[in-house]
Amino acid sequence: MTLRLEPFQPAFEAALLNLVLSPEPLAFTAHPRDLLTQVQADPDRLAVALLDGERPVPGGPVCSVGGRPL
Length: 70
Description:
This protein is α+β, with helices and mostly antiparallel strands. It has one domain. Helices cover 27% and strands 27% of the residues. It has helices spanning 13-17, 23-26, 32-41, and strands spanning 3-7, 45-52, 55-57, 62-64. Strands 1, 2, 3 and 4 form a four-stranded antiparallel β-sheet that branches.
């Protein structure tokens, strides 16, 4: 497994929206489908995809690119 971070791209959207997360991670994170629209509409946030090769995997962060906390 070779993991890397990349800024979100529309090509990743279908894979991220279809991710199946178990209940454990949902206790401390949100599903990408719940955040993606909010993040894309906020200029102070940057969605980042975690990729295994070219395949998005759970765990991509949302980064603050402005001066305010997320």
